[in-house]
């Protein structure tokens, strides 16, 4: 809570509360914490829209307006939003408005965007949701911040929901834990709102077949500066990138640059939003950049080549399954302030939005904005040629040809669903996306006719360890997913035929010589046959 003598934590300000001295005919008010546990009396000296200033014996005490309720005749009239959201400019300008519109349409509300303002140099956009009667249903404020500032705003109580194109870091997670705000990796506080893929883009006339991650690192760090070094015509490479504070740049650095201990070239042109970057690349015959798949527009996405020779092209299916190397998730985060510190009526409105985001209507709204939804799609094995190529060219390790033949036999004629389950790092617990995918898959089964079909719950592992142990581990994880799916189906589970199998390290879809590749390979797939 932002208080100052100049600035003292609210609960530590009880001393000031005890020493506050009423003055005759003064503008006396009571400032009460949002959870009602602490109240402070004093003379209201000023109010600037953001802070109350009280006179106490120790001096002037500054209290943030969004952290207290003012009581008394001298309190200024304040119109505060029901809840506040913070996210990067691209998410605040594209994804969030689309989700708001979908929410309005679903619940027969009218959505109106208010007049945007700047608080310093930070854009703030208000939205009003109104009932059909014209009565105000909710007032929401969206602030455009970079990823780091987005988490800081959530930490310090300046927003109730953080929207990020990257997962919270361990350091950020520790700060929330230290502040007593909960474990933000818990499904209560973390929602996967949509899926996305970072695409490496060139203008449509550039027909380069593919690029390796190492080549990308050298291009974006300046080690490769001419297209002739990549087998193209003699022309300089013009590099376009996002700013360092964006989740997009962080993810690209982590996946592409960091493994080569590389940094962005100082010659690269930097943008603060994806839309402008994509436009620049599309209009530069020698340009190359990276952006969210949602903003690819009239550029061409370059397939990626792994260190082990795997080729991966970005598509809706490979992003949904997490097998595209630069696939990522769009997260909504909140804290335990939602469950006590924030007035219940306002908290329920914010929590209602989080529930909507996970629904089919919410996923359709996300898809409408260009992101990839988590809705389930199906792909026959016959059109998954690259999967079979990857299986055959992978280092055999302990895998026998008979194991490969057995897997191909099991999958022959089958259809794969895009639901792909993964687990938290070094844990047996399903991760945030998987927790949402279980009820989504159960609803998909109930909504379609699978008479005479069998569901194969197929577990896979990375190549670390012995093949026999990996097969056993992958079988246990497949059974765990099946158990949770059957629990979600309840009595309906007896209407379906299930079998859980573990194929171990057979059929890798990522290179086992990298942390990211091994993570891709530790998965549970759903097949219908």
Describe the structure.
- The protein has 529 residues and is an alpha+beta fold.
- It has four domains: 69 residues, SH3 type barrels (Roll), CATH 2.30.30.100; 142 residues, D-Maltodextrin-Binding Protein, domain 2, CATH 3.40.190.10; 119 residues, Periplasmic binding protein-like II (D-Maltodextrin-Binding Protein, domain 2); 151 residues, 60s Ribosomal Protein L30, Chain: A (2-Layer Sandwich), CATH 3.30.1330.
- The protein contains 15 helices and 26 strands.
- The strands form four sheets. Strands 7, 8, 9, 10, 11, 12, 13, 15, 16, 17, 18 and 21 form a twelve-stranded mixed β-sheet that branches. A six-stranded antiparallel β-sheet has the order 1-5-4-3-2-6.
- Helix 2 crosses helix 10 and helix 13 packs across helix 14.
- It is globular.
- The termini are far apart.
- The N terminus is likely disordered.
Provide a brief overview of the structure.
The protein is of the alpha+beta class and 529 residues long.
Q: Main traits of this protein?
A:
single chain; 529 residues; alpha+beta; SH3 type barrels; D-Maltodextrin-Binding Protein, domain 2; 4 domains; 6-stranded antiparallel sheet; 15 helices; 26 strands; disordered N terminus
CATH class annotation of the largest domain: Alpha Beta
Number of domains: 4
Largest sheet: 12 strands, mixed
The CATH architecture term of the largest domain is 2-Layer Sandwich
Mean pLDDT: 88
- Unreliably modeled segments: 1-25
Question: What is the 3D form?
Answer: globular
Radius of gyration equals: 26 Å
Fourth-tier CATH superfamily name of the largest domain: OmpA-like domain
Number of extended strands:
26
């Amino acid at each position: 809570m932002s208080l100052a003598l100049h600035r003292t934590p609210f609960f530590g300000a009880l001393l000031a509360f005890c020493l506050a001295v009423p003055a005759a005919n003064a503008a006396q008010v009571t400032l009460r914490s949002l959870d009602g546990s602490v109240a402070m009396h004093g003379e209201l000296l000023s109010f600037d829209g953001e802070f109350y200033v009280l006179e106490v014996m120790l001096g002037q005490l500054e209290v943030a307006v969004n952290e207290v309720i003012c009581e008394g005749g001298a309190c200024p009239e304040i119109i505060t939003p029901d809840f506040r959201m913070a996210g990067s400019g691209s998410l605040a300008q594209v994804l969030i408005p689309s989700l708001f519109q979908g929410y309005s349409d679903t619940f027969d509300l009218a959505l109106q965007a208010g007049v945007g303002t700047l608080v310093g140099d930070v854009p703030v956009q208000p939205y009003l949701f109104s009932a059909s009667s014209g009565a105000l249903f909710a007032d929401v404020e969206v602030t455009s911040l970079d990823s780091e500032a987005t988490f800081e705003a959530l930490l310090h109580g300046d927003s109730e929901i953080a929207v990020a194109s990257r997962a919270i870091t361990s350091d950020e997670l520790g700060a929330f834990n230290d502040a007593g705000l909960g474990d933000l990796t818990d499904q209560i506080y973390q929602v996967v709102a949509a899926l996305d893929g970072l695409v490496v883009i060139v203008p449509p006339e550039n027909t380069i077949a593919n690029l390796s991650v190492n080549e990308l690192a050298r291009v974006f760090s300046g080690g490769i500066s001419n297209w002739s070094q990549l087998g193209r015509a003699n022309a300089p490479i013009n590099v376009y990138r996002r700013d360092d504070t964006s989740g997009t740049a962080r993810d690209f650095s982590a996946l592409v640059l960091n493994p080569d201990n590389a940094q962005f070239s100082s010659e690269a042109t930097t943008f603060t939003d994806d839309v402008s970057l994509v436009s620049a690349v599309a209009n530069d015959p020698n340009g190359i950049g990276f952006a969210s798949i949602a903003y690819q527009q009239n550029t061409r996405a370059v397939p990626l080549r792994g260190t082990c020779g795997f080729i991966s092209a970005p598509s809706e299916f490979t992003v949904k399954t997490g097998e595209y190397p630069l696939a990522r998730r769009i997260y909504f985060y909140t804290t335990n302030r939602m469950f006590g510190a924030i007035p219940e009526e306002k908290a329920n409105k914010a929590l209602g939005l989080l529930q909507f985001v996970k629904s089919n209507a919410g996923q359709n709204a996300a898809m409408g904005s260009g992101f990839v939804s988590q809705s389930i799609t199906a792909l026959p094995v016959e059109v998954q040629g690259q999967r079979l190529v990857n299986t055959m060219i992978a280092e055999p390790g302990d895998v026998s040809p008979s194991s490969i033949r057995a897997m191909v036999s099991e999958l022959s004629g089958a259809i794969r669903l895009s639901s792909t389950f993964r687990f938290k790092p070094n844990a047996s617990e399903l991760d945030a996306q998987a927790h949402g995918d279980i009820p989504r898959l159960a609803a998909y089964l109930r909504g379609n006719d699978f008479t005479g079909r069998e569901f194969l719950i197929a577990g896979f592992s990375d190549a670390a360890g012995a093949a026999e142990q990996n097969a056993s581990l992958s079988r246990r994880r497949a059974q765990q997913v099946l158990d949770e799916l059957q629990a979600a189906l309840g009595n309906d589970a007896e209407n379906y035929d299930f079998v859980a199998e573990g194929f171990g390290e057979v059929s890798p879809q990522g290179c086992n010589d990298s942390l990211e590749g091994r993570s891709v390979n530790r998965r549970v797939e759903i097949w219908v046959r």
